[in-house]
Design a protein that fits this description.
This protein is mostly helical. The chain is built from eleven helices and no strands.
Length: 277
């Protein structure tokens, strides 16, 4: 696999784990992710003057990806209402490569090798173990977490095709975040009907910082998709569950049992097997 794609995917993995930990620590996660979307909108504007505009053939993918990412944000916020970072994040990221592999097979006609199949088995086993180990707590968050994983697979598959024909991964990412930054506040108002009355400057500033981290991670991911195999890049990014487990334990003080370590290691092994194929 292309070393540049590997480096970008692993860099994106650390950033994704970081901003998910940030999101988990907020009281109103839907409002926080909405503020983050506004931050990415502001930063994406000057990016249009830095990067070449994407090929018009990729515009359909941009619209579809931004829309799916709104669904992803809503589902992720809901998932974190019922589970901890070390519960939800491995389910979301661990299930995503499986869905990506299936979607890429159906829509992009990428075939699955024996090594990739073994990686999928490891990922499914690790995800199943996480749910089993947490029992009712994880079952309550399993459905929204797995649904979130499906939306991840959706936008990764779309971006894998769109970034390739855009001719400008940076411009492609900027356009997605501009549209996402417009759609997410509309979605928030449709759900909540009003904005919070006690908006604090500190919470806005920290949310904007989280938005910058998420934009940087996403841009790195899109660039990696333009260099490497769709399923391989997606799988490598899912090694972020290791970072999320460490963050959940050290910063959020969430328990990290031997069973959880085993499950995370199994999911990571599956991601590595797929990424190395």
């Amino acid at each position: 696999m292309n070393p540049t794609a590997i480096s970008l995917a692993l860099f994106a993995a650390t950033l994704y784990a970081s901003w998910n930990a940030f999101l988990k620590g907020r009281a109103d996660r839907l409002w926080t992710v909405t503020l983050m979307s506004l931050a990415t909108f502001v930063v994406a504007l000057p990016m249009l003057f830095v990067f070449a505009p994407p090929n018009p053939a990729s515009w359909g993918f941009i619209i579809a990806s931004a829309t799916v990412q709104v669904g992803y944000s809503v589902l992720l916020a809901q998932a974190y209402q019922s589970g901890g970072l070390s519960d939800v994040y491995p389910l979301v990221r661990g299930s995503a490569p499986v869905f990506v592999t299936l979607l890429s097979y159906v829509f992009v006609h990428q075939h699955i090798t024996a090594q990739t199949a073994l990686g999928i088995i490891c990922i499914c086993g690790g995800v199943t173990w996480i749910v089993h180990e947490r029992k009712l707590s994880s079952l309550a968050s399993a459905l929204p977490a797995l649904a979130t994983g499906l939306t991840v697979a959706g936008y990764v598959t779309l971006d894998g095709a769109g970034a390739g024909i855009s001719g400008s991964p940076g411009g492609y990412s900027a356009c997605i975040f501009l549209l996402y930054g417009l759609l997410m506040p509309i979605c928030y108002l449709a759900i909540r009907r009003s904005i919070p009355a006690d908006i604090k400057l500190k919470s806005v500033a920290t949310a904007f910082l989280g938005g910058l981290v998420s934009l940087l991670g996403y841009t790195a991911m899109v660039a990696a998709l333009s260099f490497g195999h769709l399923g391989a890049v997606s799988a490598l990014r899912e090694t972020s569950i290791v970072f999320s487990a460490v963050i959940g334990r050290l910063i959020l003080k969430e328990p990290l049992s031997r069973d959880r370590l085993f499950a995370c290691a199994t999911v990571t092994l599956g991601a590595v097997l797929i990424g190395a194929d």
